[in-house]
Amino acid sequence: MMADLKKNIDYQGLIERIGNTYQSAKSKIISAVNTQMLHAYWQIGKDIIEFEQGGKLKAEYGKQLLENLAKDLSLRFGQGFSRSNLNYMRLLYNKYPICETLSHKLSWSHYYELLKVDDDLARAFYEKQTITENWTIRELRRQKKSGLFHRLAIGKDKARILELSKKGQIIKSEEDFIKNPHVFEFMNFPENYQYTETDIEKAIINNLQQFLLELGKGFAFIGRQQRITLNNRHYFVDLVFYHVKLKCYVLIDLKIGEVEHEHIGQMKLYLGYFTKEVNEETDNEPIGLILSEEKDDIMVEYAMLNDKSKLIVSKYQLYMPDIEQLKNKVKEIIEK
């Protein structure tokens, strides 16, 4: 009797509905708890700052306030009131003086990471991107460490940098794929390892989730070494993706060393083939992305002069960039 019930389709549907209801309620409870705790930490930060500003503490004891609070609150309420936590609660109120500006989609742990970003523009960007792309704490840390905001900002003018900080990265065209540079530190190649283009390609496939995080939202993986046959000759595109929002194929070629003009010509061939032979009526023009270790900007400019192909040549590196250097470049752009 029990075995028959388990095979019953309606019964299985009941199990599914109950499970969905339970999981939905559980998620809402966790979200509500996170929101309440975030607001509580904001209020604690507000109380600390108002206590300081209200002159209720002698100036010479000001530095000891968090230390004493940490000890007394920990004795009374247990964990959660370390000096570091209290400092970030204070900082939360300082950076977000209006509680309603805090997003209920983010946890205290998210804001803890965001508050480590000194630059207000960069912090606003990472907050927006975390919400939009539903980044985990780990993903947020990685993007901060890789200097995503500053890599995207280089090459933009002041107005576009300010827009980037307010709205996050919105991919509208092939130009929005540009990062200076792309960072593939997740490949973890040993120092002085003589890697090949095939090694890089395999490492990307083995770390596809991290690679997609670096590319940005909206990419669907189609395949690697996609064959194109023309005039009885075979050509192979390293990686092919489809961008859901732009409704187009994205073709990626990986190059070790410096990109050459023939690489650009080869990518144009791939783009032409996909336009004529692969695209459906609802697809937009394909986009080509050549990723190389080095590039000569002037050579690339001349090779693509008056060219209407949607083709981007961008650099990549296998280690984290110098964040201070990136910050200084963006600062120069803004100050101009």
Provide tags for this entry.
53% helix
- CATH architectural group of the largest domain: 3-Layer(aba) Sandwich
Taking the sheet with the most strands, its summary is: 6 strands, mixed
User: What is the SS-derived class?
Assistant: alpha/beta
**Helix count, per DSSP?**
14
Low-confidence stretches: none
**Would you give the CATH topology of the largest domain?**
Trna Endonuclease, Chain: A, domain 1
Let me know the average pLDDT: 89
Count of the domains: 3
Query: What portion of the residues fall into strands of 2 or more residues?
Result: 15-25%
Summarize the structure.
It contains 14 helices and six strands.
Structure characterization notes:
- This protein is α/β, with parallel strands linked by helices.
- The chain folds into three domains: 60 residues, no CATH class; 83 residues, no CATH class; 139 residues, Trna Endonuclease, Chain: A, domain 1.
- A six-stranded mixed sheet has the order 1-6-5-4-3-2.
- The protein is globular.
- The relative contact order is 0.08.
- The mean pLDDT is 89.
Fold topology:
Layout (H helix, E strand, L loop, with lengths): L1 H6 L1 H45 L11 H13 L5 H13 L12 H7 L5 H14 L3 H9 L2 H6 L4 H10 L14 E2 L13 H10 L1 H8 L3 E12 L2 E11 L4 E11 L2 H18 L8 E8 L2 H7 L7 E7 L5 H13 L1
